[in-house]
Write a structure and sequence with these properties.
two-stranded antiparallel sheet; mainly alpha; 3 helices
């Protein structure tokens, strides 16, 4: 509602009052931006805390494994749940965590020619 008052053009006021209105609007926008940044920081902090608790619970119940990537040496924790597919790629560098190349999907042309995915490359 405050912003709507500044957006409407006021008739009969001189340029000095319009300049002060613009400055006040800029200050209000700055305050709004600062408030939004604080809110996003709080949400991010809460999300990180929830994610840490989630993986700690999975680890305690033996529903996750920690693997060190052979390429970037990053420790990767991945969930071992039946409902989720097992991710094989390192989230940091993309390298395969199992040591095997990630199989590629066959193209339509390979399928038409009777070539399997392992033979296409």
């Amino acid at each position: 509602m405050v912003i709507e008052n500044y957006i409407t053009v006021r008739k009969g006021e001189d340029n000095m009052s319009n300049a002060s209105d613009i400055k006040e609007l800029q200050e209000n926008i700055g305050k709004l931006t600062g408030g939004l940044m604080k809110a996003f920081e709080q949400v991010s902090f809460d999300y990180q805390k929830l994610q840490t608790m989630h993986f700690a619970l999975l680890q305690e119940l033996d529903f996750c494994e920690i693997i060190e990537c052979s390429k970037c040496r990053e420790s990767v924790m991945r969930p071992l749940l039946k409902a989720l597919p097992l991710e094989d790629g390192c989230p940091m560098c993309g390298e395969s965590l199992s040591g095997y190349e990630t199989p590629t999907q066959s193209t339509i042309e390979d399928w038409d020619n009777g070539v399997g995915a392992d033979e296409s490359e």
